[in-house]
Design a protein that fits this description.
alpha+beta; 226 residues; globular; single chain; 3-stranded antiparallel sheet; 31% strand
Amino acid sequence: MIEELLPDSVVAVEAYGHDEPENATLYPGEAALVASAVPKRRREFTVVRACARRAMEKLGVPPQPVLPGERGAPRWPAGLTGSMTHCDGYCAAALVRAADLASLGIDAEPHGPLPEGVLEGVSLPGERIRLRELAGTHPAVHWDRLLFSAKESVYKAWFPLTGKWLDFTEADIEILLDPAQPSGGTLRAELLVPGPLVGGERRGVFEGRWTVRGGLVATSVTVPHA
């Protein structure tokens, strides 16, 4: 699912269900981080790293620990950049050579409405207006959850380029439908703070894709070098 939202240069590996794959093991440093976590947290932490290591192998990089850095962002092997996501019953990792993309972000969420009151805290007035318009024409999609996922993907692509926090309300996201496929489309995020410098160019807009499938909402954002 995630792979379809990403350029061909990106390797994505995903896992469905609640069972750990046979190769889902942790390095000592990783295991220490979740030693006291609840079983669900440990399982998702383990499986998403198994996905990441499989992606490393596909890119010809020896499997390595994936430890959190600043603000919890994963630290990738030299020469790679990527993103991970996990939710109930789904884990995925996407990796790419840093020479091919400046940054990327992925996110998956259960396809259901956000808890009451959350949308108002993570969205802008204009975004909420657009969501109501989308809901009027395509009510089967939980657009609030899709917007939340898109915000997460934007942040995951933003942070490696800046090392700074990006508030939910500092990116104005427009969700666009694909007329040929109502369950998917593109997204455009206008940054409301100075964007990152990529190759000497200030990036004020991030673009990505989205899909709704199998009880999940998935989004991606990619930042090209040029």
